[in-house]
Amino acid sequence: MSSTYSGSIKVSIFGESHSDAIGAVLDNIPAGEKIIFDEIIMQMQRRVPGHNNISTDRKENDIPEVISGILNGYTTGAPVCAIIKNNNVNSEDYKSLKDLIRPGHSDYSANIKYRGFNDKRGGGHLSGRLTAGLTFCGAICRQILEHRGVVIGAHAYSIFDVFDKKFEGNLSDKLLINLSRERFPVIDRNKKEEMMERILQVQKDGDSIGGIIECAIKNIPPGVGAPIFDGVENKISSLIFAIPAIKGIEFGAGFSSAKMRGSQNNDPFVINGGKIATYTNNHGGILGGISSGMPIIFRCAVKPTPSISRPQKIVNIKSKLMQEISISGRHDPCIVPRAVPVVESVAAIALLDLFKEAGLL
Amino acid sequence: MSSTYSGSIKVSIFGESHSDAIGAVLDNIPAGEKIIFDEIIMQMQRRVPGHNNISTDRKENDIPEVISGILNGYTTGAPVCAIIKNNNVNSEDYKSLKDLIRPGHSDYSANIKYRGFNDKRGGGHLSGRLTAGLTFCGAICRQILEHRGVVIGAHAYSIFDVFDKKFEGNLSDKLLINLSRERFPVIDRNKKEEMMERILQVQKDGDSIGGIIECAIKNIPPGVGAPIFDGVENKISSLIFAIPAIKGIEFGAGFSSAKMRGSQNNDPFVINGGKIATYTNNHGGILGGISSGMPIIFRCAVKPTPSISRPQKIVNIKSKLMQEISISGRHDPCIVPRAVPVVESVAAIALLDLFKEAGLL
Amino acid sequence: MSSTYSGSIKVSIFGESHSDAIGAVLDNIPAGEKIIFDEIIMQMQRRVPGHNNISTDRKENDIPEVISGILNGYTTGAPVCAIIKNNNVNSEDYKSLKDLIRPGHSDYSANIKYRGFNDKRGGGHLSGRLTAGLTFCGAICRQILEHRGVVIGAHAYSIFDVFDKKFEGNLSDKLLINLSRERFPVIDRNKKEEMMERILQVQKDGDSIGGIIECAIKNIPPGVGAPIFDGVENKISSLIFAIPAIKGIEFGAGFSSAKMRGSQNNDPFVINGGKIATYTNNHGGILGGISSGMPIIFRCAVKPTPSISRPQKIVNIKSKLMQEISISGRHDPCIVPRAVPVVESVAAIALLDLFKEAGLL
Amino acid sequence: MSSTYSGSIKVSIFGESHSDAIGAVLDNIPAGEKIIFDEIIMQMQRRVPGHNNISTDRKENDIPEVISGILNGYTTGAPVCAIIKNNNVNSEDYKSLKDLIRPGHSDYSANIKYRGFNDKRGGGHLSGRLTAGLTFCGAICRQILEHRGVVIGAHAYSIFDVFDKKFEGNLSDKLLINLSRERFPVIDRNKKEEMMERILQVQKDGDSIGGIIECAIKNIPPGVGAPIFDGVENKISSLIFAIPAIKGIEFGAGFSSAKMRGSQNNDPFVINGGKIATYTNNHGGILGGISSGMPIIFRCAVKPTPSISRPQKIVNIKSKLMQEISISGRHDPCIVPRAVPVVESVAAIALLDLFKEAGLL
After folding, report:
1. What is the mean pLDDT of residues B156-171?
2. Helix or strand or coil: residue A197?
3. Is-contact C302 C11, C-beta < 8 A?
4. Chain D closest CA to B80's CA: distance in Å?
5. Per residue, what are the HEC states of D235-302?
6. Helix, strand or coil for residue C123?
């Protein structure tokens, strides 16, 4: 029930949407890893709202203050802690919401769990803002993995009814690197405009939409992971649900494999230049919970942002009355583009954890 | 990288497909819980192969020997350990396969991980047979949850292209209880025959098919779970991938929510007889990682069994030669019906863990 | 290998002696607990150096900035994070020591572990200063335990050859409360002066001395803890060695029991006012790893501070030369009095963890 | 609160004194390690009672049935599970004790914890018999460590008032190897007879005595372990209290360091044949929680067996009456010799765990 991930590496996420700061501790990572601060900033900026007209107005510069664990650009082996100040706090917006149970939000479930003592301002500890800490940790994990040749990239595979291409079998490092540096990454650039249109349209309606993010991790050697409880799928899925809006995850062919025959879904191994590999990748780079050496591929479903300005039915937990109200405030009509770097970050955390367990750090 | 689950409750799964026995240890469960042995047997029998013409010929009676932790029908508070003998072992089948890398199997990834020392007979520790231990533990967890009013049931939501009904909002305890006692549970009984036909047809072709299992957990009080790393979705998804064939999981509306508008996906809360609830359940009973009091609903994708008798391209890891061969042996053309009780069992383990963390045991 | 404690409650300690700040995250504690900030300060001030002539000159006000997890004086249920600034940093002292391996310090072992990348200034992450974070977390845990009637107190049982009284069987709450508020707590006040004399004398010699701290925890109900790995002794001992100077721990009669007969060491149970208890407490309140309801008593050995100004033989890890040098810097001739609140804090963390596991929170 | 150790390696101990069997699961150890079964048996036989006139009459051959995880003499990488049958069960002895609270035993604390449902026969899960599982796991861990040059040995440093020599600075591998193969290991062979005399004498009196076990671990490279929560002391101490009779532990000079000056306690580093080392070893091979490369030395206090046949005051938990009775049954007058291999085993588990964390497996 905690916000501390205790795998082979440890991640502790703290803070509340309107507390003084949020932040994270990343622990049990190797000493002597070169960390480029600008790369951390770049990843965090991809997540930051306020860069265009399709995200919340809350403007946070989200420059992390690294308090410990990095000295002269190298990890010291001690826990890395960073603080991210909450500057653009507007608690007034939420005061009127204190006793209201909004649909799609955790108002009710959190209220019961914390017996009303949770910080309700801006969603408190359950706010999507907390993913800034995940992104910080992920940005460091990613750099440590990059030192070992690993490349991670994701894209908006779909937004509402607009679909980008899927990752193909012969996935280039370059594609992933490019995607991992964009604010609204898609493979087929033509689709981006169409996706933007859908978002702007739904925003005009005071509504929101969801989508699917597809992520690939390349150059993972075979033999990483384990059967039963600590496999690659277990790790990634367990961590991916740390992102509030995610409601599903699939690896490789995923749910489509349920409609396939074995002869179709099985990826034949071949010897390719002395190396064992598969051409197709329905298994998403994972067999028996263990990496096969092929790219690890997963897709996750992002639900439409629950915060919408259209009038909705709402329950007051104190008065026990129902009412229909419009919620003002600062909302994203579609969280998908900003969630892409968070998905990549979570993938980086999961993989670094698996590397540590496999003795590869 | 271990076969030990270390949540608030602990599960240790041991054994190999052709070792003397397989088994499990279930630890940190409360003392004084009445355990009906016949109910354990019943659940394990749902998973056992050999009951009809659509499962492997390997016949195992799978009667667990409870070695400790239960005395006079009650848990003692000490770890419950059970041994399940491997009787119907036919290692000859696999000898010829020792150096072969079959498509869809973990032969290659496991060979690398264990440097060739893994027990390859029948898939060794990575065999689907290990889910018998999960089912044993799940059967006990389920009984402990039942003492607290919880009901768990799942069904074959789809097999290949044949779809059963989905769980509806007003889900009765009775439906779940009935499903949880059947060998091939479906909601719409007419679909069962059609599903069987598909399986028999594909079997005739020497092929296999997959499907989707839908599971519901009722009467979980609101407030169970947590944001970020230890939420209901994190726990269930992390454990569900302990089942070898699972390639995806979604909660509530899941991947469909990616195609929805917020106004459509948000489940409005209402006051219903003084109780706060939602009519629709797109959120699958989970908001912010915390239970809402509505049924917890998830679906998981089961890939087609990789073992098929049709000729397939195979690589010999020693000779580095490719060949096309037909693999004889004892295979399931569709693992879905036998996987249903395992999915329910994993759900029971996850929920008991969450109950323990929430101080409800 | 991490600085994250992952029991039922989680503690993450971060920072380095000369980094911007040190701090801690305390996670998975209950919501709605009243936290008096002044009590935290009071405990942290007991640990702070610079209050008298027997501690290091490094002056740190050690006022923690609580960043999250406490709102309007109550825990919100989210992780509590506090930052403690490093103000009085004097890195010059240590520059000349960078390549030197001092006796009694972790210079060598840490240098190997971190491959030279560890922050060596002031001992970096291995500095005794990091116990400020433990004290912060312990101060909160203590308050939560106090809400449930628990009282924790410790005293300097010995310093070098001067011995205070031991805790007796009929230990009053008041004694513990008084001890837990003093800077140099002893039971027999006459001994304090004698202890001070020893410290001042050894300081004059440029040397240091150690001692023994005795700690008692009262009003723990019977039934807390567990056999084998998670008993009261396992938890406390595991956490007590988080304090750098501790080299031994014993519970109840401890090492003396090794010289006793069973008939002498066994504490007979009696019925006392309808309550089951023992008069003597050789078992230190723990039987089979589980609390007996009697006070939990332990003593831990504090080694003399390794930092002394007397000339010592030292190895230069780069030049591989030995030399004899005097180390200037700011040292405590005896760390015992300042370690007392840290021992109490660690006891509070251990017990809160055990309470959580026992379902008592 | 569980009997599952979840470090980098996992150990699960199950069974009850009079259940069908006891046993253990050892998980997350490397594949391909040669395991000599006779060495396991040898270690377990050192622990087995009934070999001489100073241990309980309960005769158990304690030959473990290895169920999984070892194939053709090598670890497969899957969990190793072993079952040890309980043959010589004499439950009649204990029936009359069911409601009695014996001094020095966990009858009361366990009764409260398990609400009376614990298996009380022979101490149930809290019996010293459970250390057979620890010894099994330790015997495997020891062999894996031996493949990497590590040697572990312990001796009865004291029994009551008879003291053996302590380990010296220049400790030979051979001494440790010899000790690790004896049933009643001492350094000074003359002391053994004297110790035996004390035991026989106290047995005649219907009483029992305790003692101190000293253990050394050689050839641990520097850099293993960590500061704060996961150091060598934290690990060993946390695991050593899994042995029911242990009431204290100290490392290196331990409690004696509390009576030393820093100049005396500090072990100067020297360059010895190009290698950095210390001549003295007051630090017990651990500085800052990290190994220094010197032998790791610890001593632990074993309390006198609580089971004695002399009349003792006892409380009946049902009738709430006190009575004085003599407890018949099968008791050890001194558990020290049989505990030596268990202490070594626990040390092996702790060190293998630290090796795994340090990436040395």
Report:
1. 95
2. helix
3. no
4. 7
5. HHHHHHCCCCCEEEEEECCHHHHHHCEHHHHCCCEEEECCEEEECCCCCCCEECCEECCCCEEEEEEE
6. helix
Q: Each residue of C76-101: pLDDT tens digit?
A: 999 999 999 998 777 666 677 788 99
Residue B73 buriedness (CB in 10 A; 0-12 / 13-18 / 19+): exposed
The H or E element spanning position C316 is strand C312-316
C-alpha span between C251 and C189 (Å, rounded): 24
Q: Tell if the CB–CB gap between B12 and D12 is shorter than 8 Å.
A: yes
pTM of the predicted structure, to 2 decimals: 0.97
Instruction: State whether residue A13 sits within 8 Å of chain C by CB.
Output: yes
* Token pair of A100 as six digits: 């209201």
CB contact under 8 A, D361 and A359: yes
A8 touches chain D (CB under 8 A): yes
How far is A270 from A264, CA to CA, in rounded Å?
Answer: 16
C contacts of D108 (beta carbons < 8 Å): 222, 269, 276, 287, 292-293
Find the largest Cα–Cα distance for chain C. 71
Do A154 and A213 touch, CB atoms closer than 8 A? Answer: yes
The pLDDT assigned to D52 comes to 62
* Bridging pattern class, strands C70-71 and C65-68: unpaired
Q: How far is CA C242 from CA A77, C245, C300, C355, in A?
A: 17, 9, 12, 20
CA–CA separation, D159 vs D179, rounded Å?
16
**Distance from D230 to chain B by nearest Cα, in Å?**
17
> Which of D175, D236, D215, D191 is CA-nearest to residue D341?
D215
D294-321, pLDDT tens digit by residue?
999 999 999 999 999 999 999 998 888 8
The pair of three-digit structure tokens given for residue A341, joined into one six-digit string:
């770097």
How far apart are alpha carbons D354 and D361 in whole angstroms? 10
Helix (H), strand (E) at residue C215 = strand C211-218
3-state SS, one letter per residue, for C26-82 = EECCCCCCECCHHHHHHHHHHHCCCCCCCCCCCCCCCCCEEEECEECCEECCCCEEE
Check the CA dihedral B27-B29-B33-B34 and report its sign: negative
Distance CA D38, CA B20 (A): 20
Tokens of A107: 């108002």
Could you give the CA distance from residue B310 to residue C253 in angstroms, rounded to a whole number?
Answer: 72
* Chain A nearest C-alpha distance from B160 (Å): 4
Is the pLDDT at C104 greater than 80? The verdict is yes
CA dist., res. C298 & res. C306, Å (int): 24
pLDDT above 90 (res A93)? no
Chain B positions in Cβ-Cβ contact with residue D22 (cut-off 8 Å): 68
- According to the 3-state scheme, what is the secondary structure of chain D? CCCEEECCCEEEEEECCCCCEEEEEEECCCCCCECCHHHHHHHHHHHCCCCCCCCCCCCCCCCCEEEECEECCEECCCCEEEEEECCCCCCHHHHCCCCEECCCCCHHHHHHHCCCCCCCHHHHHHCHHHHHHHHHHHHHHHHHHHCCCCEEEEEEEEECCEECCCCCCCCCHHHHHHHCCCCCCCCCHHHHHHHHHHHHHHHHCCCCECEEEEEEEECCCCCCECCHHHCHHHHHHHHHCCCCCEEEEEECCHHHHHHCEHHHHCCCEEEECCEEEECCCCCCCEECCEECCCCEEEEEEECCCCCCCCCEEEEECCCCCEEEECCCCCCCCCCHHHHHHHHHHHHHHHHHHHHHHCCCC
Domains of chain C as residue ranges with CATH: 94-357 (3.60.150.10)
What residues in chain D have per-residue pLDDT under 70? 1, 50-58, 91-94, 329-330
Q: Which chains touch B (3 or more CB pairs under 8 A)?
A: A, C, D
**Token pair of B100 as six digits:** 């072969």
Tokens of B146: 């039942």
